[in-house]
Design goal:
The chain is an alpha+beta fold and 434 residues long. 48% of the residues lie in helices and 18% in strands. Bound molecules: (R)-mevalonate (MEV).
């Protein structure tokens, strides 16, 4: 990638942005044509096959975040998102973090978990023992239910038995849950896991004498974790009003608040998910699955808390860390069908699933840094309103150059609302007619 073509990217015209990506080697000539001809749309025949009662496409802006350095590699990251300030904030944070060495990431082995949950178990200890004794047999049967994943080098790897007992007086009976840990290779693997769970459940019923109530993967992918860390020296943090040390300490304190207060933690984590969801969506992955798993992970201590930690190291630098369950895939689902997803994978240089996890968790950490840094210094409205002003200008009916002109006047207006945007546009059009 030749990043010299990407400097001041945000200032370029739409067509020049696409040319710059092409010149930088981020997109191919064919992808450049696709973007210029606006043919990134899902065609209606594919849409019709993809979902029931298909009537059209609901489009979302696709942009690229700049300046990412992840495990020493420069990256351009595709993001599908409608919220105006997210990509700007992401690129801003990545620039600061990139200039300090970038993100370092770690990933666990990728294992998805399937559950067969049973009711009507007479003796839980005995049922658990029988399942554990038959472990190899159960894993083999799971693999027989989906032989192609075994051929691809994956398959069922491990088994765990859990007795689900409610200690309160809720009257909920006890259930038995059998977990199978499955290597789904490059796939997110919902179909693989679900097929395996349905395949093994008659045998598990036979072994335990119970009734299989649920046979499905869990989206709480605790065996598929990705971690990003970054170290930012204080000289990269100072603003016009605050010293670098003050900004560092304020970011640490804000994260402490999000660690102890669920009301703040939800918003803090929403800021992380602004980045995470945008990449998950662009890459054609199931963002509902990621959202559900991430928020359960934020509650793993028994209380909903901040997903990030920000601390000070011995030399006084700010150190950030984020761990997320990220069961994303690079094959299957919409990934190989959706032209936007295909472009996104190409922009990221066709990452494997592990690399995609590394990218997503880094974006989450950057997004959190950008939001909290802004919140504890100038506040987010300054940056937000600048970009929000353009949305208001478009809502007011501005077209072409008028969008930026209305936004620029609006930014300096006392009231930044739709009515004001409409009045500014009217004045501009009257001036134009004179
Ligand atoms: C807005 O989309 C996200 C923030 O609210 C995140 C945060 O408060 O940390 C700015």
């Amino acid at each position: 990638m030749d990043t010299t073509h990407l400097t001041k990217f945000y200032k370029k015209k739409h067509t020049d942005k696409i040319e710059a990506l092409y010149l930088a080697g981020v997109i191919s000539k064919k992808e450049k044509e696709t973007l210029l001809n606006r043919t990134l749309e899902l065609d209606s025949e594919t849409g019709n096959h993809l979902i029931e009662n298909y009537i059209g496409n609901y489009s979302m802006p696709l942009g690229v975040a700049m300046n990412y350095v992840i495990d020493a590699e420069e990256m351009v990251v595709p993001m599908a998102i409608e919220e105006p300030s997210v990509i700007a904030a992401s690129s801003f944070a990545a620039k600061i973090i990139g200039s300090a060495g970038g993100f370092n990431t770690e990933v666990t082995q990728r294992r998805m978990i399937g559950q067969v949950t049973l009711k009507n178990i007479a003796n839980f200890e005995e049922a658990s023992r029988k399942i554990e004794t038959a472990k190899q047999d159960i894993l083999s049967r799971a693999n027989e239910a989906y032989p192609s994943i075994v051929k691809r080098g994956g398959g069922a790897r491990d088994l765990e038995v859990r007795i689900l007992k409610d200690d309160s007086d809720s009257g909920i009976p006890t259930f038995l849950s059998v977990h199978i840990h499955i290597d789904t290779q490059e796939a997110m693997g919902a179909n693989i896991v679900n097929t395996m769970m349905e395949g093994i459940s008659p045998y598990i019923e036979e072994l335990t004498g119970g009734t299989a109530l649920l046979r499905i993967l869990t989206n709480y992918a605790t065996e598929c974790l990705a971690t990003a860390t970054c170290v930012i020296p204080t000289n990269k943090l100072k603003t016009a009003t605050f010293s670098g040390e003050e900004v560092r300490d304020r970011i640490i304190e804000a994260t402490q608040v999000a660690t102890i207060d669920p009301y703040r933690a939800v918003t803090h984590n929403k800021g992380i998910m602004n980045g995470v969801d945008a990449v998950v969506l662009a890459s054609g992955n199931d963002w509902r699955a990621i959202e559900a798993g991430v928020h359960a992970y934020a509650s793993r201590s028994g209380q909903y808390r901040s997903l990030t930690t920000w601390q000070k190291n011995d030399t006084g630098d700010l150190v950030g860390e984020l761990t997320l369950p990220l069961p994303v895939g690079t094959v299957g689902g919409a990934i190989s069908i959706h032209p936007g997803a295909q472009l996104a994978h190409s922009i990221m240089n066709h990452p494997n699933a592990h690399t995609l996890e590394r990218i997503i968790v880094s974006v989450g950490l950057a997004q959190n840094f950008a939001a909290v840094r802004a919140l504890v210094t100038e506040g987010i409205q300054t940056g937000h309103m600048g970009l929000h002003a353009r949305s208001l200008a478009i809502s007011a009916g501005a077209k072409g150059d008028h969008v930026q002109q209305v936004a620029d006047i609006l930014k300096h207006s006392k009231h930044k609302n739709l009515q004001r945007a409409k009045n500014i546009l009217l004045n501009l059009l009257e001036e134009f007619d004179k």
